[in-house]
Write a structure and sequence with these properties.
CATH topology: L-fuculose-1-phosphate Aldolase
Pfam families: Aldolase_II (PF00596)
GO molecular function: aldehyde-lyase activity; metal ion binding
CATH superfamily: Class II aldolase/adducin N-terminal domain
Number of helices: 7
Strand content: 15-25%
Order of helices and strands: HEEEEHEHHEHEEHH
Protein name: Class II aldolase/adducin family protein
Number of strands: 8
CATH class: Alpha Beta
Strand order of the largest sheet: 4-3-2-1-5-8-7-6
Distance between the termini: 15 Å
GO cellular component, one term: cytosol
Largest sheet: 8 strands, mixed
CATH architecture: 3-Layer(aba) Sandwich
InterPro entries: Aldolase_class_II_sugar_metab, Aldolase_II/adducin_N, Aldolase_II/adducin_N_sf
Structural class: alpha+beta
Helix content: 40-55%
Length: 218
């Protein structure tokens, strides 16, 4: 079983990875991971720069929103993370980013269709847009949990991206693939439009990823 200190350290590493890849800026975005054998999550604190974030800054919170360990206030988007974990027992990590092309789709309120094979393998299909609500609210949390609809990524209207997975690494990959697909979608639209993959093929690829390819990465 992975130690709590290791999970906290991995979240710090993910934060710096997101910053280095340009998926977040400043103190925006947030990261969480479900602890292995309990109804607890580890989540980034509110308003802390990823450059100076330390493992001990990561806050431990129960699924009913009670802080059980940590000296800082958890992310203001805690309700969003909790709503996803409550709705999806298969999700072990949630990453929220503000990448440029995906955010362009979010502000246009345009879902990213299933047009790229690596995207659909990880996310399970189109990346849909959750209805707008103010950040940090329960309304936003409920809208996001609904829009996820069994998949591993979504867009928050006028806000950014949510990527999920069975590990922190997979959640980050989901965010990277959403950004890549958003850029391709925007460019393809300028060329006359993107051709969408067949739904049956999407499901075949996603099932293969979950049952086979994901296991090879562990």
């Amino acid at each position: 079983m992975e130690k709590l200190s290791n999970i906290r350290a991995r979240i710090v590493t993910v934060g710096r990875t997101l910053l280095g890849k340009g998926l977040v800026a400043g103190t925006w975005g947030n990261i969480s991971a479900r602890l292995p054998t309990s109804e607890l999550i580890a989540i980034t604190p509110s308003g802390r720069d990823y450059r100076t974030l330390k493992a001990e800054d990561i806050v431990i919170v129960s699924l009913d929103g009670v802080v059980v360990d940590g000296h800082l206030k958890p992310s203001s988007e805690l309700p969003l993370h909790l709503a996803i974990y409550r709705a999806r027992s298969d999700i072990r990590a949630v990453v929220h980013t503000h990448s440029i092309f995906a955010s362009a789709c979010a502000v246009a309120r345009r879902a990213i269709p299933p047009i790229i094979e690596d995207l659909v393998q990880v996310t399970g299909g189109s990346v849909d847009v959750a209805e707008y609500a103010l950040p940090g609210t329960e309304e936003l949390a409920l809208n996001a949990a609904k829009a996820l609809n069994g998949k591993n990524a979504l867009l928050l209207a006028n806000h950014g991206v949510i990527g999920c997975g069975d590990s922190l690494e997979e959640a980050v990959t989901a965010c990277e693939l959403v950004e890549k697909a958003a850029q391709i979608y925007i460019y393809a639209t300028q060329l006359g439009g993107a051709v969408v993959l067949d739904e049956k093929d999407v499901q075949i690829m996603h099932t293969f990823y979950k049952e086979h390819y994901r296991q090879r990465q562990k």
